[in-house]
């Protein structure tokens, strides 16, 4: 149909050119314009016809074929025959190509045989020439040899006639003659061999000629077969082309008939085409106006999205504020619950990476923190992240002041008559001593606690009289030693108070009464000098003993006669270490063994307390025995677990954090306040119970027995104990 329409357009173009030549002037131009319009209309019709044809073909492909239509069946049969003829033509072409290849191969073989024959003939000619030359030489030699014996015989005869003296020369001549005859025999043998080789070469030549004739006959026969096959294929091809042409003519007739139907359809499709043209123009106008509409829509959408984002941000901020407020409230309730249950509070502190950790992957940071919860930290151990929840976690950038702000509430409760214990736990080199003692420029919990106690005492000086005493001891190789005594090597023992209260005390332990910050610095300096520290592979200044700073605060309310006694135990435990990594030997090895043994005993005590066993093995170690008052439910206890963030220390960090979680789950019960009513509220009695000067003297830690109180005092005491 397309070809017919193109022919129609060509005829109209020829008609236009003819009319242009016949007509001229204005009428010719008008007619030309009319024909151009008609031409344009026909082009549009042709395009529409092409689209209709494509649509019809698509519909024919989508719809199921009509089984009863003879035209379609004939068309399918003709297409099948045409495809079969095409396949046969392809097979014939393939056979022709194969025959061409075979002829080419045989031609190449014939050329190779001819070359070999030429080479053989050339070699044979050379061999014949060489043999002929050798034959001629041999014949000449034979002729020469035949001529020589007669002369020799003649000479021999002549010699025999002439003289007998020349017998020796005759013998030599005979031997020479015999040698020459042998040479002649050898030459004859060589001649026979050459003649035999010549006969063999002639036979080979005859065989080669026979092979060449056979190859030529085979080549002629193959050439004849190839010509016959090519002629047969040519005839088959012509026959197939004729059949295809006749079938194509039949198909063309059917196409012409279909084209007539299409023309009829085109006449009916013109109104639809005009409608489509109108719709197209309207769509074109809409597309032209679309960018403006799109920009306006985008502006409105951006404004709505910005407003929604702002609302979401404000909602998120409000939710975050509420979450943080609820988190603070939860922490407050949790701390109150911990206080009521008597749980051991556990704080964690992560030291920063130092140059002692080295460089490379082993010094990488393996500890991360939760941005929304300051009580959670995450440890990356062997490719897996392990999370731990404590009561508070201090990152490496936390200062000594920030750490002390979290523990100062416990310290001040010591003034009110409560027993408080703060001990630092962790591997060697994790920063325990720094947290507890600090440096001169940046003191730790010990010195800040005493400074806070003095500040609180001064604030209550109008109504209360306080006395603060300090003792310092260390447990070195399971031996308790006095760091403030004159003989620090003297071993002390832990005993029960004789007053029947069940509390422990250390007879002979030196106490200093401190009244100012200067006294504190002197005590710390005096005790720090005597503490045992050594250098190991893990820590340049490794503490080799457990250090205990015992602060006792005794108060007297002058108005009511209420006496309070509070004790603050600040413990810097020696670091757990692996002997293989620390490189400890000799005395260092013995120290490490005692340290690990005492820390293991502490773990056993924590396990017994956590599982609520009837027997708690406090006496398995001097350390646990001395901390019995702090771990048996009559003290507010805080453990500061110190960890290293370095990758190489993740195993020790994991053990320390797991131990901290176990300690956090221990419930010691409610804490009681140590308060009594006395009948003589005087400063002299308070000073009589405490050292009166800064000079050290030996005394026990036993509490004085109460006197006889009145009924009003007993009532007040019961109320205080109930509130405590």
UniProtKB/TrEMBL annotation:
Region of interest (Disordered), residue spans: 676-724
Domain Kinesin motor: 343-666
Coiled-coil ranges from the UniProt annotation: 2-148, 184-243
Membrane topology: Peripheral membrane protein
GO CC, any one term: microtubule
Gene Ontology MF, one: microtubule motor activity
Pfam families noted in UniProt: Kinesin (PF00225)
Main location: other
Regions that span the bilayer: none
Subcellular location: Cell junction, Adherens junction; Cytoplasm, Cytoskeleton, Microtubule organizing center, Centrosome; Cytoplasmic vesicle membrane
Binding site for ATP: 426-433
Protein's GO biological process: microtubule-based movement
Keywords carried by this UniProt record: ATP-binding, Cell junction, Coiled coil, Cytoplasm, Cytoplasmic vesicle, Cytoskeleton, Membrane, Microtubule, Motor protein, Nucleotide-binding, Phosphoprotein
Biased composition (Basic residues): 715-724
Biased composition (Polar residues): 705-714
Family statement: Belongs to the TRAFAC class myosin-kinesin ATPase superfamily. Kinesin family.
Role: Minus-end microtubule-dependent motor protein. Involved in apically targeted transport. Required for zonula adherens maintenance.
Protein name as it appears in the record: Kinesin-like protein
Species whose genome carries this gene: Drymodes brunneopygia
Gene: Kifc3
């Amino acid at each position: 149909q397309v070809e017919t329409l193109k022919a129609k357009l060509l005829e109209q173009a020829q008609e236009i050119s003819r009319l242009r030549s016949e007509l001229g002037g204005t009428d010719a131009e008008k007619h030309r314009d009319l024909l151009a319009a008609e031409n344009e209309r026909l082009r549009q019709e042709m395009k529409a016809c092409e689209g209709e044809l494509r649509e019809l073909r698509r519909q024919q492909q989508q719809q199921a074929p009509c089984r009863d239509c003879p035209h379609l069946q004939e068309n399918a049969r003709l297409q099948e025959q045409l495809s079969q003829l095409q396949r046969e033509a392809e097979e014939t072409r393939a056979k022709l190509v194969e025959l061409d290849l075979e002829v080419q191969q045989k031609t190449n073989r014939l050329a190779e045989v001819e070359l070999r024959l030429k080479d053989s003939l050339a070699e044979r000619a050379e061999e014949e020439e060489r043999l002929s030359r050798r034959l001629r030489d041999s014949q000449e030699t034979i002729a020469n040899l035949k001529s020589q014996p007669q002369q020799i015989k003649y000479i021999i005869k002549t010699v025999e006639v002439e003289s007998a003296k020349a017998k020796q020369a005759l013998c030599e001549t005979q031997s020479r003659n015999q040698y020459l005859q042998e040479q002649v025999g050898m030459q004859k043998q060589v001649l026979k061999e050459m003649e035999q080789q010549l006969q063999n070469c002639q036979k080979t030549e005859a065989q080669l000629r026979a092979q060449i004739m056979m190859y030529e006959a085979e080549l002629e026969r193959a050439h004849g077969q190839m010509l016959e096959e090519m002629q047969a294929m040519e005839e088959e091809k012509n026959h197939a082309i004729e059949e295809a042409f006749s079938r194509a003519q039949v198909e063309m007739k059917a196409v012409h008939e279909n084209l007539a139907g299409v023309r009829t359809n085109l006449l009916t499709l013109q109104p639809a085409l005009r409608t489509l043209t109108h719709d197209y123009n309207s769509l074109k106008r809409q597309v032209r106006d679309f960018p403006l509409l799109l920009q306006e829509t985008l502006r409105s959408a951006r404004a709505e999205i910005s407003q929604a984002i702002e609302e979401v941000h404000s909602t998120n901020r409000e939710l975050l504020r509420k979450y943080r407020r609820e988190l603070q409230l939860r922490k407050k309730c949790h701390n109150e619950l911990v206080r009521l249950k008597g749980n051991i509070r556990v704080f964690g502190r992560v030291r920063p990476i130092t140059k002692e950790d080295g460089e490379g992957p082993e010094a990488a940071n393996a500890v991360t923190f939760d941005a929304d919860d300051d009580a959670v930290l995450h440890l990356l151990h062997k490719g897996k992240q392990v999370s731990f929840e404590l009561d508070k976690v201090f990152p490496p950038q936390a200062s000594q002041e920030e750490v002390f702000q979290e523990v100062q509430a416990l310290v001040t409760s010591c003034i009110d008559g409560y027993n408080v214990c703060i001990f630092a736990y962790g591997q060697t080199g994790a920063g325990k001593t720094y947290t507890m003692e600090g440096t001169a420029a940046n003191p730790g919990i010990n010195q800040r606690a005493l400074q806070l106690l003095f500040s609180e005492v001064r604030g209550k000086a109008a109504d209360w009289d306080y006395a603060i005493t300090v003792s310092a001891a260390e447990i070195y190789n399971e031996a308790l030693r006095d760091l403030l005594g004159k003989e620090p090597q003297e071993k002390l023992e832990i005993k029960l108070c004789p007053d029947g209260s069940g509390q422990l005390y250390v007879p002979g332990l030196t106490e200093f009464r401190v009244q100012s910050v200067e006294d504190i610095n002197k005590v710390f300096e005096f005790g720090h000098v005597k503490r045992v520290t050594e250098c190991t592979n893990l820590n340049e200044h490794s503490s080799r003993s457990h250090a205990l700073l015992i602060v006792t605060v005794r108060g007297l309310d002058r108005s009511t006669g209420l006496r309070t006694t509070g004790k603050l135990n600040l413990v810097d435990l020696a670091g757990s270490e692996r002997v293989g990594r620390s490189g400890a030997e000799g005395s260092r090895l013995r120290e490490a063994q005692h340290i690990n043994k005492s820390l293991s005993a502490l773990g056993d005590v924590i396990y017994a307390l956590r599982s609520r066993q009837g027997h708690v093995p406090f006496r398995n170690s001097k350390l646990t025995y001395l901390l019995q008052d702090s771990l048996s439910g009559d003290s507010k206890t805080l453990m500061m677990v110190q960890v290293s963030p370095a990758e190489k220390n993740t195993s020790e960090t994991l053990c320390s954090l797991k131990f901290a979680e176990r300690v956090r789950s221990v419930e010691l019960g409610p804490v009681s306040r140590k308060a009594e009513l006395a009948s003589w509220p005087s400063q002299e009695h308070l000073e009589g119970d405490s050292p009166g000067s800064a000079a050290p003297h030996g005394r026990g830690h036993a509490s004085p027995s109460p006197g006889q109180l009145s009924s009003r005092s007993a009532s007040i005491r019961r109320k205080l104990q109930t509130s405590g």
